[in-house]
User: What shape does this take?
Amino acid sequence: MSVVIRFRDITKMYQMGMEEVHALRGVTLEISRNEYVAIMGPSGSGKSTMMNIIGCLDTPTSGLYELNGVNVSEMNDNQLARIRNKEIGFVFQTFNLLARSDVLHNVELPLIYGGYNSAERKKHAMEAIEKVGLTDRSHHKPNELSGGQRQRVAIARALVTGPSILLADEPTGNLDSKTGAEIMDLFDLLHEQGNTIILVTHEEDIAAHAHRRVRIRDGHIESDELVTERRIVSHTPMTTA
Amino acid sequence: MRIYLDETKEGLLIAFAAIRANKMRSVLTTLGIVIGIVSVTLMGTAIEGLSRAFNKSIAAVGADVLYVQKWPWGGGHDWWEIRNRPDLTIRHAKALERNAEIVRSISPITGTARNVTYQSKVIENVIVVGTDADFLETSNVNVWLGRFMTALEAEGGRPVCVLGSEVAEGLFPVENPIGKTVKVGNYPYRVLGVLEKQGNFLGMQSLDNRVYVPINRFFKEFQSFRRGIEIWVKSSSLEQVEETKEEIRGIMRKARRLEPKEKDDFAINQQEILVQTFNQIGGVIAAVGLFITGLSLFVGGIGIMNIMFVSVTERTKEIGIRKAIGAPKRSILLQFLLESAVICLIGGIIGLIIAFPLSLIIDQVLPTAMPLSVVGIALVISVLVGVVSGFLPAYRASRLDPVDALRYE
Assistant: This one.
């Protein structure tokens, strides 16, 4: 399996007033194509920092980060923006949709910054919207949708550029358990379809969907284990969501 | 290239959405620009009007006519030196008439103010101009009724006169004035003709409130309000004005018996000097006026900058989202610059819509219409104000750290 993410002794240090905070203290990790990984840890463990670095929102203080064999640890802001656009699909806890734009425009947005023409944008966006089962809602505004639907829009937006990884930060944190389960089913399905998925969570239930669990504590990897007993899930048909 | 177009389109969509979402705020912010554009536009229109009024007046003064006078036009001369110059006399006019070759016509001119009466009608303080038969040619005016004085009448100092149109209208509202005898001051003159209406000079001095009499008679019966005379010289052609000027200068110097190293003790004035003087004064008026009105635009620009800072802060989260999904700095910068430019452009357009009827009011005083150039400049300036005052907030937005921006609530 080809390696998508390679972390080599990554550290991250913040200056908080007079104090230096070591959020990551030498993390080495590899994630291969089509893996389904949960990154777990209590708050303050460094998992958010790790997610930000994996997602190219932030750069490490030291160490090497290769994404698809490309060293991204020393890229400038605009290069990172381009990598985020092409290679990373973010799904956030709070959905982070543009409130004033409809579903179609929200999903199209990464393609605008990616330089696609409007016909291609529409085509790809509608395909992504169809994958998450919201074709009939494409002209609704986020405030006209339920929480689960909003998260589906966010997933469609994450998928639309065909990224190397889907990076989900507590994707069910703002959803009730039934809706949360539906969203996790969607992630399972996307994984089956060949996507590489990284879940950042502190909930065991959610992590149970992944095939590999990486536990972070105090800026170190505490454990990294393959899950043999995966929870058996039945996929709900997308169209009923 | 297409990506810039798409980003611009996206930026414009966001800009309009943002303006719609904050209507009241947008209106109040725009108001500063509206006021700025209205004042600058009206100032520009007024300056344009002033310039047009001047040019219209100056056109009456022929460009091919030279004015030999004691006093030079324009400023910057030694008053005492000029005051003590000898006066020009009819002798000089004769010398020019005898010797000048590159001229079409030469007219001695002098004037004073007298009441002109016909029967019981009196017009007070009419300018009585003493001149000769060539005046018609020299000054480019036409006879509307009757005829001008002949050379014989002028030379012989006959008691004949030609009326300006205003005087003719005043004294002869219904009668035909030709052949009637009017009194200029205390002396009777027979009316030969009436000149065409000429309007006024710089809105001050009516050129029609005049009576023209032979200069030889003028000297017998009136005293000039300036001592001495002036001599108008019309060049053979517009192209030869400078040569004519040199020629008459030589003749004048000879007539005055000036040594080669002595300075001229007379002035040869021409339209160009008036234009130059006006352009200097007009330039200062324009600069000061536009600077003062420009201040209001500056204040408007500060308002825009302020509100754009608020807008950037409010939308920190949105900026974070856009950055997370791959918007480069340039796109964020462009987005906020566009928003600021659009607000200002709308302000500019509203400003022009308000300024247009107001410019028609100015038109009552100065002959003007809002020139298209002012419209164009106003729109360009308003966009410029938007870009300049939006730059700092937009730059700050583009520099936001995506992690911090996403965390912002």
Summary: The mean pLDDT of chain B is 88. Residues 2-57+276-407 of chain B form one domain. Chain B has two domains: 2-57+276-407, 86-265.
